[in-house]
Fold 20960_t:CDS:1.
Amino acid sequence: MLIWRIIWTRIKLLFLCRSFYDNLNVTSPNLNFVEKAWAAWFNSFENEAIATAMIAFIMHEVVYFGRCVPFWIADFIPFLRKYKLQANKSNTLEEHWQCLKSVLFAHFCIELPLIFGFHPVATMFGMEITTVPFPHWQTLAFQVAVFFVFEDTFHYWFHRLLHYGPFYKYIHKQHHEYSAPFGLTAEYAHPLEVVILGTGTIGGPLLWVAITHDLHLITVFIWISLRLFQTIDAHSGYGIGC
């Protein structure tokens, strides 16, 4: 696909950009590797919005599928079945495949366009995108904690609403198609549900930066990564993390 060719080209350019790294080593010797890579990534693009969308999408896919894989492997290890919450139920490879196709459709056709629209909104509110060094870890931790509280409250009430009558029948029912959930089902949902509940995930950071004008994109990435871990673990079907 075109987008993956573009992403791969940019990744190669990032690691070939030795002169930019060398310049950072001279001008900003206190930056760590991630901060230098961050600066190099955005320096390799003429369009900051495209750079932001690409790195955000890559982050989401790597974290999401990276976290799902251990649970998928665990399903083939008999010793770990005792940790399954529904040990007498299992899903076929066909069911996994159908779920994967639906999730990929949501990622590319729903979430990716929304990700491309994130940059103009974030910068309008004053979010820092390319700035290095990153915020102090205490600032980052506090902001992520606030986002967890906001999202948890938002998710509780809107998830409850989605269990009401027609909302469940026409929207939320899809999310409960698998009687024995597994990691991939974390984002297996109707397009409207993807948008509604996704608003709680990204709404916290946008509301925060709109009020305080103090938020870095790396904080949003860390928050979303932790939230993905949380929801995948909750849908994994296991009583302990893998």
Observations:
- The chain has a mean pLDDT of 90.
- The chain has ten helices and no strands.
- The longest helix spans residues 48-74.
